[in-house]
What does this fold into?
Amino acid sequence: MITPNLPEDHYTTFRLVSPPNMRRRIPCHDAQCKGYLEGWKTGVDESTPLGQGQAHYIRTQSGRRFSEYKTATGLTVFDFPPGQRCFRSHTVPVGDPLCLRYRGDHRTMRPQNVHRHARIDDWVDDFANTQDQIRTRLERG
It folds into this structure.
């Protein structure tokens, strides 16, 4: 983190925050997931208990199409063709994020220093006005 050069009260911090509970899962094709679009490979070391469990899951419970082969080092590689759900979870924000402006910087991010805009358009306008004030001060010297 960069150490600020000025006192805390010389800063204004703008944040858009999307809490984790304000997200919903979406399918791979909606997320334009690279694995879904192009396929992917997963390497598993079956000489370990973890690798044995992963390979068992892929072969018997994953419900995905794949081919498999062993590398020269003994690693099992599962090759998944495109067009199927990957193993990751894809999410998108639900609704608008929290639109926050703090008096100060990261050192003063306390509830008493925060203003929450009700609308994202108001936050954007506040941010733009603050940037304009900074630009004007810099131009004046």
Summary: The chain has a mean pLDDT of 89. The chain has two domains: 8-24+94-140, 34-87. The beta strands are 12-17, 23-26, 40-44, 67-70, 76-80, 90-93, 98-103, 114-117. The two ends are 28 Å apart (CA to CA).
